[in-house]
Amino acid sequence: MDEERALYIVRAGEAGAIERVLRDYSDKHRATFKFEPTDEDKRKKLCEGIFKVLIKDIPTTCQVSCLEVLRILSRDKKILVPVTTKENMQILLRLAKLNESDDSLEKVSEFPVIVESLKCLCNIVFNSQMAQQLSLELNLAAKLCNLLRKCKDRKFINDIKCFDLRLLFLLSLLHTDIRSQLRYELQGLPLLTQILESAFSIKWTDEYESAIDHNGPPLSPQETDCAIEALKALFNVTVDSWKVHKEVRLKGYSHLPWNLIGLGHS
């Protein structure tokens, strides 16, 4: 019944009504992870309808409501088969500011849309083999690294950074080929190391010596999440094989402050 009502309003196309009905749906199903099989077709159609709304010029608040419901629906693997297309993936990439043409992250009002789009991509990539293949075709790993560089040293966008890192971890977990791309072509090791150094306020006193302000404030839960996601992605990038481990140890680990791991558990 919820899906029928939401689908009717979404197809009608009035942004204010769409936002209200989808916000109600999101509030009701925020903690839903198991769905009724009998409503599967309705959920597929609702997903398709939401993607059609997202290509329109609608208010930011309506975009967020659409993406929140899409994120909830994408927990169900079965409904992703018909909606996981290159066109729909590109819609989410555009909303997440993952296109190379997007030069900066200046509009704070857009941040909730970026975060929700990244959350949707995390679910869809994890639950859909087609999305995983499209991620390679769309060069998603490179786009994520580009977005991370825009986030560097800007703590007020930690949510964006955290879900970017989570998606990067998922890609490197599901596709071993991406690990090599991250290591060499995308310079993932120094990028992830810099993120960790920034999170822990580490300063280098010499080429191989670092200093930490132990009297500084503890990491916030948000900063801790970012550090954990960065460590997970870093693990995938560096532990591909013994040969890679040896190479990274020689070329990169000398610059990686291993006391980060101890700090993360303090």
From TrEMBL:
GO CC annotation, single: plasma membrane
Subcellular location: Cytoplasm
Keyword field contains Signal: no
UniProtKB keywords: Chaperone, Cytoplasm, Guanine-nucleotide releasing factor
InterPro entries (alphabetical): ARM-like, ARM-type_fold, Gua_nucleotide_exch_fac_Ric8
BP GO terms, sorted: G protein-coupled receptor signaling pathway
Lineage: superkingdom: Eukaryota
Keyword Kinase: no
GO molecular function, one term: G-protein alpha-subunit binding
PANTHER family recorded: SYNEMBRYN (PTHR12425), SYNEMBRYN-B (PTHR12425:SF2)
Subunit note: Interacts with some GDP-bound G alpha proteins. Does not interact with G-alpha proteins when they are in complex with subunits beta and gamma.
Free-text function comment from the UniProt entry: Chaperone that specifically binds and folds nascent G alpha proteins prior to G protein heterotrimer formation. Also acts as a guanine nucleotide exchange factor (GEF) for G alpha proteins by stimulating exchange of bound GDP for free GTP.
Entry similarity comment: Belongs to the synembryn family.
Protein name: Synembryn
Organism (species): Rousettus aegyptiacus
Lineage: Eukaryota, Metazoa, Chordata, Craniata, Vertebrata
